[in-house]
């Protein structure tokens, strides 16, 4: 955990961009100092029972701009009493909310999507300041979340049950999907808007109430989304926000009133949460880490493929769970590597607010160290470093956590840099003699989030689609994340649980099925008692 004292020396560094935060009204507290001396840094507020409230926490975490090390705000480790108050607010809000007509719940989502659309610029600026991604990419972060809100606007159809008439004489059976109660969401740093929007819009439109724990590294977008949800008409207590790290996550796992948990983040945290919450009988969906491969066939369109590899490998500084972090060149396509290096070299690395950067910094100093360590381990185990971005200097941002595009070639399956998720702007290149061999490489990896093939052969694409063990498959598409009418379908070590995020599975996750069997018929007056198991036909 980064503490303010550790950064005192650099907090006044260049590119100090305070305009985003102090002007950033109600969700950050500036109240503890007189108005002529507004509190700086401002403090992130909890959102409990419809009110933004200052925490009584004793411990606080700095939220730091990764390009400058400026402390943007301080985030509380929400106290246990505050957490309990949030769960209690959600529990109290549940009965009236579940009884609110679905059409009303949908209309609130319609309003929310309008407000998010209107405030996209502001949300994007908050994301760029806290998370570091480029402004353009931050807009994409908001937009991909907005699509889930739009999808939630059609919840009445999505939540429809089933009906079979006359399952037996005069008897009908139908099923209804009912909300679970209080649900919770635990979020990662890399998509500060999109991932909270994967969670609460679907959950609450199904009739649940929600406790959201944003990432401690970039909480601003979640707080602003809560404000917009309130403005859109979401009743008090339906959405609540608490802050913190491990302790609050454990409290969420242990709480008897929370029925379901949506988690997105690393495998270490996710598997801990999965085990701990499952022991309490909760429903859980965990989207986890990844190592996404792109298989390049020699018959692919070279130009388009190289552009796709560069964009998907280095976009968002490689901090996407669907970043294409490994290329497997098949046969002669290996010779394309030089072109790949050339194009990666041309990418512009800069702070996200500067004009037209291609990639910004990684999230923290620790992340940078970890990424560089994995690159070094690759070199030491025999990989060739054909492009080295580790010592990049970005003028004016001496303290930023920048890493330029980095490419490791001749990587093999047993190297640590291949086995571990790097989560940085590092592309790993491997080679295979045939498509069979390339598929074998991909399938040997423990992760199964996404995999793509680049080819002009329908037969190769079909073989790949059938044999590849990844949940999201791209054919000439580098980042095959489906739109929300499908689900986000990572598999193997990239997912724990049974029901995926959004799409039909997302609605199933946030609802439980009740089946009703009804009999409406005139019963004969001379009927007899029968203790045999009822069946639909007389034997
Ligand atoms: P992280 O696991 O460090 O943090 C995620 C959340 O878990 C945070 O809210 C954090 O406070 C909490 N947390 C972290 N460690 C914990 C622990 N030991 N006990 C309890 N709670 C803990 O993840 P991150 O660094 O924020 O995000 C990056 C990771 O998320 C990458 O592995 C990436 O692949 C993954 N991710 C996956 C998807 C997907 O859809 N598969 C999407 C985005 C990110």
Automatic annotation (TrEMBL):
Listed GO CC annotations: mitochondrion
Residue ranges annotated for the Aldehyde dehydrogenase domain, each copy included: 52-516
Single GO BP term: thymine catabolic process
Highest taxon of the lineage: Eukaryota
Keyword NAD carried by entry: yes
InterPro entries, A to Z: Ald_DH/histidinol_DH, Ald_DH_C, Ald_DH_CS_CYS, Ald_DH_N, Aldehyde_DH_dom, MeMal-semiAld_DH
PROSITE patterns in alphabetical order: ALDEHYDE_DEHYDR_CYS (PS00070)
Keywords, ordered alphabetically: NAD, Oxidoreductase
EC annotation from Swiss-Prot or TrEMBL: 1.2.1.27
CDD domains per record: ALDH_F6_MMSDH (cd07085)
Gene Ontology terms, MF aspect: methylmalonate-semialdehyde dehydrogenase (acylating, NAD) activity
UniProt keyword annotation of Oxidoreductase present: yes
Family: Belongs to the aldehyde dehydrogenase family.
Protein name per UniProt: methylmalonate-semialdehyde dehydrogenase (CoA acylating)
Organism: Bixa orellana
Source species taxonomy: Eukaryota, Viridiplantae, Streptophyta, Embryophyta, Tracheophyta
Gene: ALDH6B2-1
């Amino acid at each position: 955990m980064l503490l303010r004292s550790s950064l005192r020396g650099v907090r006044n560094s260049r590119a100090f961009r305070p305009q985003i935060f102090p002007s950033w009204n109600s969700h950050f507290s500036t109240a503890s100092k007189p108005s002529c001396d507004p509190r700086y840094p401002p403090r992130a507020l909890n959102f409990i029972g419809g009110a933004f409230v200052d925490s009584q926490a004793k411990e606080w975490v700095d939220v730091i701009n990764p390009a400058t090390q400026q402390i943007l705000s301080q985030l509380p480790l929400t106290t246990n009493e505050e957490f309990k108050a949030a769960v209690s607010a959600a529990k109290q809000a549940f009965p009236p909310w579940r009884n609110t007509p679905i059409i009303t719940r949908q209309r609130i989502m319609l309003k929310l999507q309008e407000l998010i659309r209107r405030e996209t610029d502001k949300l994007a600026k908050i994301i760029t300041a806290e998370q570091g991604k480029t402004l353009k990419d931050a807009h994409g972060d908001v937009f991909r979340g907005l699509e889930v809100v739009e999808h939630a606007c059609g919840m009445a159809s999505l939540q429809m049950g089933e009906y079979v008439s006359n399952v037996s004489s005069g008897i009908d059976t139908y099923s209804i999907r009912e909300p679970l109660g209080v649900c919770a969401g635990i979020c990662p740093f890399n998509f500060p808007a999109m991932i909270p929007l994967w969670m609460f819009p679907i959950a609450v439109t199904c009739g649940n109430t929600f406790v959201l724990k944003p990432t401690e590294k970039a909480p601003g977008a979640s707080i602003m989304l809560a404000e917009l949800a309130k403005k859109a008409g979401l009743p008090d207590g339906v959405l609540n926000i608490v802050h913190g790290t491990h302790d609050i996550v454990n409290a969420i796992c242990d709480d008897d009133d929370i029925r379901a948990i949506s988690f997105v983040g690393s495998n270490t945290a996710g598997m801990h949460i999965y085990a701990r919450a499952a022991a309490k009988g909760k429903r859980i969906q965990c989207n986890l880490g990844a190592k996404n491969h792109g298989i390049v066939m020699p018959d692919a369109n070279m130009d388009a493929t190289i552009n796709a590899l560069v964009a998907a490998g280095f976009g968002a500084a490689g901090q996407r769970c669907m970043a294409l972090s490994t290329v497997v060149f098949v046969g002669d396509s290996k010779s394309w590597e030089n072109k790949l290096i050339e194009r990666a070299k041309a990418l512009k690395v800069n702070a996200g607010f500067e004009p037209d950067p291609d990639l910004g910094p990684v999230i923290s100093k620790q992340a940078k160290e970890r990424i560089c360590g994995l690159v070094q381990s690759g070199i030491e185990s025999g990989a060739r470093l054909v492009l080295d971005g580790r010592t990049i200097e970005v003028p004016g941002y001496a303290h930023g956590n920048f890493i330029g595009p980095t490419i490791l070639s001749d990587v093999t399956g047993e190297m640590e840099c291949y086995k571990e998720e790097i989560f940085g702007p590092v592309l790993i290149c491997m080679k295979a003699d045939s498509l069979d061999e390339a598929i074998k490489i991909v399938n040997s990896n423990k992760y199964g989030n996404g995999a793509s093939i680049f080819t002009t052969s329908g037969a190769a694409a079909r073989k790949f689609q059938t044999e590849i063990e990844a949940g999201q498959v791209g054919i000439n598409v580098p980042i095959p994340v489906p739109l929300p009418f499908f689900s986000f379908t990572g598999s193997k070590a990239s997912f724990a649980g049974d029901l995926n995020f959004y799409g039909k599975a997302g609605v199933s996750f946030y609802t439980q099925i009740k089946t009703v069997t009804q009999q409406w018929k005139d019963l004969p007056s001379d009927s007899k008692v029968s203790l045999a198991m009822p069946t639909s036909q007389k034997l």
